[in-house]
Amino acid sequence: MVIKKTIVKTALDLAEKLEAEAIIVSGDIEIKDLTTSLPVYFAHRRPKSIIDYLVSTSSEQQERGKEIADKITQEVAGNTKNVENVAAIEHLLGELERGVVVGIVETRDSSSIIVHDLSESPLIKAMRECEERVSPEVMRAVLTIAFDIAATGREGSQIGTAFIIGDVDEVMSRSHQMILNPYAGHSKPNRDILNKQNWESIKEFSQLDGVFVVSEDGVIEAAGKYLDVDAKDLVINKGLGGRHVSAAAITRDTVAIAITVSESGGIVRVYKDGKETLCIESTKRAFKQMLPE
Question: Where is the DAC domain (predicted)?
Answer without folding.
Answer: 124-282
